[in-house]
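Q: For a teaching handout, I want to show students what a protein-ligand complex looks like in token form. Below are the inputs, and the small molecule is zinc ion. Please produce the holo structure.
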Amino acid sequence: MAEVSGRCFCGAIRWRANGSVLWAGHCHCESCRRASSAPFTSYIAFNRDAVTFDGEPETYASSPGAERGFCGDCGAQIFYKSERWPEEIHLFAASLDNPDDFTPEAHFFWNERVAWADLNDGLPRHPAPTDQAAGCA
Ligand SMILES: [Zn+2]
Ligand SMILES: [Zn+2]
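A: Here is the structure, written as tokens, with zinc ion included.
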């Protein structure tokens, strides 16, 4: 894939990813729901060394071994990292400059979804994370 880029709401944080998309999908876990205050979160995952930032995201430990990055000015969520996937960074796909650069492949943590977000896109629905993708919490 060509280089893709994104930014937070206010533009203080910008990111660029130059490499293959490892996976892309929607996470319905409770942690992502609460962290983003949205019914689910959409991720596009890259190797960490494929991603560079303009501006320094603030971070917090959302659970042991896991870190979430956000803009300290506007509060927009930027990324998720976990020791479980030490090579990966999961960027919030909704922060893409071009939303069409995201092609979701599956739903994760389907068992934790809210009932009022009705999704019938035909994508696979994994009750939990798979070995490859979307293990938040
Ligand atoms: Zn911002
Ligand atoms: Zn999640």
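A: Two things your students might notice: The longest strand covers residues 41-47. The chain has a mean pLDDT of 93.
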